[in-house]
Design brief:
There is one protein chain. The protein has 583 residues and is α/β, with parallel strands linked by helices. The protein folds into three domains: 4-190 and 572-581, Rossmann fold; 200-290, Formyl transferase, C-terminal domain (Methionyl-tRNA Fmet Formyltransferase, Chain A, domain 2); 310-490 and 510-548, 2-enoyl-CoA Hydratase, Chain A, domain 1 (Alpha-Beta Complex). Strand 1, helix 1 and strand 2 form a beta-alpha-beta unit. Helix 9 (332-346) packs parallel to helix 11. It binds coenzyme A (COA). Coenzyme A binds next to helix 10 and strand 20.
């Protein structure tokens, strides 16, 4: 296959961004509906293999044609598309599409059908784009075992992992020039409609209802009604200990409500009302506040199937704090409850606390949806960032325990620095991180990043990370010194526990804790934490209350999931003037 042969050295006046091209690298255009987690992962993996990668959002056929003309890619890879690639492009260039289905599966809603039909295994196929959807020759494929989980979770974990393996293999095969993709017979299924998803609360079991809501999470949700109002429901959790008349709303816990099924009940965590956006259920429906509260007995409750967003357990002297906040978004109240739980954990007779986050996201910072819904988004932004800072500060000031952030899922913006507030940060291989804030309308950010980031990576690298606004792989985060360890994807949770137990049982543990205390005191004497916080919040105050509304506009579009109308220039390198001068 074609290979970009030119060697592009650092250009005068260039940012040093362009890699040197070697004979074996390819020029790969990622054509994608959005720069989602899979596109980010492929971007990082392909760049790590020396390929020159540029990104174009699928906005219109003309824009795609223009991008192809500017970049002259050896290969176009489409990780996530909602429309077909124009014939003018696929008929002249090798275009590969990542389809979230097994070989022979064709058409939309592939993963939705697989989840709703309870498939035991599923897969990903990388096929060549042609006129018929998903019917082109297969370049590579991979299968995986299914589990009972939300579609968004299966997509971010199993699908992404399989897609990365298959896409990298397909790229290698394409590069070798010796592989002939083969045609496989297949059958197309229809787009899954709301009539296929509809729930019959009077007749269906908890398991069936869960599968339906999971298959529609995080888009489009299942159309239903609550308090007689139409809405789409998301974020379902099973309940085994409670039940009632099928369809009846039984109570609430924090922001979720419980609805009875024929054989138990289902917690509904999030809903989207007609014309609105996704919100915690009790916020979207204030009527929920009249339901009886169904509290849990504390953070340490046994994890029976129920709704529990914060949970604590212990293992051999190590406290394990889980916080499975939907989409990793942390609203003011969630930050406050988590701070309380953390402080409670510091009073237990343990030696270390592992902040485990959730399985899909560790944290994505302040909760942009609840902020958008607030009477005053500026005031709510301020309350939320202060609650995040209180939590980060509690972790930073913890003297009694060694603190470890274990990132099973990704983190973005303030979530990345909240993790860095811990003494150790261990991240699962394959996880993507976005340790910067500027994509959200030039937000400055807080969570003590000005204290934490330069101390780990140096001032120059810190500035580059913040300015470049690029995703970072788990391995890269350790290479640059932002985080401390990248642990294998398989058995991440048990590896984290055994490492943490080994740390607290090591003879040097007490000395390690003493060093941490000394370091914090020395840092405090040089520049108190309060100064960092005040400096950051001063700029954040301008972001929230100042005359430049960029953050409010960006947040509004993010929450509304507005389609992109252009590709950010830091991703579309083919649109940079330097690029056209070099090729
Ligand atoms: N608040 C509310 N919702 C958030 C969120 C936040 N801070 N971060 C992510 N989400 C939601 C998204 O709206 C999306 O919702 P959906 O279920 O309706 O699709 C879901 O989480 C997944 O996010 P998505 O952007 O599709 O995931 P990704 O893996 O492609 O990208 C990030 C991950 C972190 C890069 C991206 O979500 C992001 O930029 N988040 C905002 C981070 C931020 O600016 N936080 C505020 C400053 S601290």
């Amino acid at each position: 296959m074609l290979g970009a042969s030119a060697a592009i050295a650092s250009l005068p006046g260039s940012s040093g961004y362009y890699p040197v091209l070697h004979a074996q690298t390819m020029r790969i255009l990622l054509l994608t509906h959005s720069f989602n987690s899979l596109a980010q992962r492929l971007f990082a993996e392909l760049k790590a293999r020396g390929h020159v990668v540029s990104v174009e959002f699928d906005i219109s056929d003309a824009v795609t044609e223009e991008a192809v003309a500017l970049f002259r890619p050896d290969l176009i890879l489409a990780p996530f598309l909602k429309r077909a690639i124009p014939e003018s492009v696929w008929s002249r260039h090798t275009c590969m599409v990542v389809h979230p289905g097994i070989e022979g599966d064709r058409g939309p809603s592939a993963l939705d059908w697989a989840i709703q039909q309870g498939k035991a295994s599923w897969g990903v196929t990388v096929l060549q784009a042609e006129a018929a959807m998903d019917a082109g020759p297969v370049w590579a494929s991979e299968t995986f075992a299914m589990r009972s989980a939300k579609k968004s979770s299966i997509y971010r974990n199993e699908v992404t992992q399989a897609a990365v393996h298959a896409a990298l293999l397909a790229v290698e095969r394409c590069e070798s020039g010796r592989f002939n993709p083969r045609r496989v017979p297949g059958q197309a299924h229809a787009l899954m409609r709301q009539s296929d998803r509809a729930i019959d609360w009077q007749a269906e079991t908890t398991q069936t209802i869960l599968a339906k809501i999971h298959a529609a999470d995080g888009f489009p949700g299942v159309a239903d009604t609550l308090w007689g109002e139409p809405c789409h429901i998301f974020d379902a959790w099973p309940e085994v200990a409670l039940g009632g008349t099928p369809g009846e709303l039984l109570g609430r816990r924090a922001t979720a409500v419980l609805r009875a099924t024929v054989d138990g009940a289902v917690w509904l965590g999030h809903v989207k009302r007609a014309g609105g956006f996704k919100l915690p259920t009790t916020l979207a429906f204030p009527e929920a506040l009249s339901l009886p509260e169904l509290p849990l007995e504390g953070w340490w409750m046994a994890r029976e199937p129920t709704w529990q967003d914060i949970a604590y357990s212990e293992m051999d002297g190590v406290g394990l704090l889980d916080f499975a906040f939907y989409n990793g978004a942390m609203a003011t109240g969630q930050c406050e409850r988590l701070t309380q739980a953390f402080q409670w954990a510091t009073m237990q007779p343990t030696k270390a606390i592992v902040l485990r986050g959730g399985a899909d996201f560790w944290s994505n910072g302040i909760h942009l949806n609840t902020i958008e819904a607030a009477a005053s988004p500026s005031d709510e932004s301020w309350a939320n960032i202060n609650a995040m800072d209180d939590l980060a500060e509690a972790v930073l000031r913890c003297e009694t325990h060694l603190t470890i952030a274990a990132l099973h899922g990704g983190a973005g913006a303030g979530g990345c620095f909240l993790a860095r507030a811990a003494d150790e940060v261990w991240v699962r291989d394959g996880v993507m991180l976005n340790p910067h804030y500027k994509n959200m309308g030039n937000l400055y950010g807080s969570e003590f990043w000005t204290y934490l980031l330069p101390a780990r990576v140096g001032q120059v690298q810190a500035r580059a990370i913040m300015q470049n606004r690029l995703p970072m792989s788990a391995q890269e985060s350790v290479r640059v010194g932002l985080y401390d360890a990248c642990l294998p994807s398989e058995d991440f949770s048990s590896v984290v526990i055994s490492r943490a137990v080994a740390l607290v049982q090591a003879p040097e543990f007490a000395a390690q804790l003493a060093v941490k205390r000394e370091q914090r005191r020395a840092d405090e004497a040089t520049k108190p934490l309060a100064w960092y916080r005040n400096e950051e919040l001063k700029v954040m105050q301008r972001n929230f209350f100042g005359f430049d509304a960029s953050y409010h506009v960006a947040r509004h579009h993010f929450v509304a999931r507005s389609p992109h109308s252009w590709t950010p220039r830091h991703l579309a390198i083919h649109r940079d003037l330097h690029w056209s001068q070099t090729v």
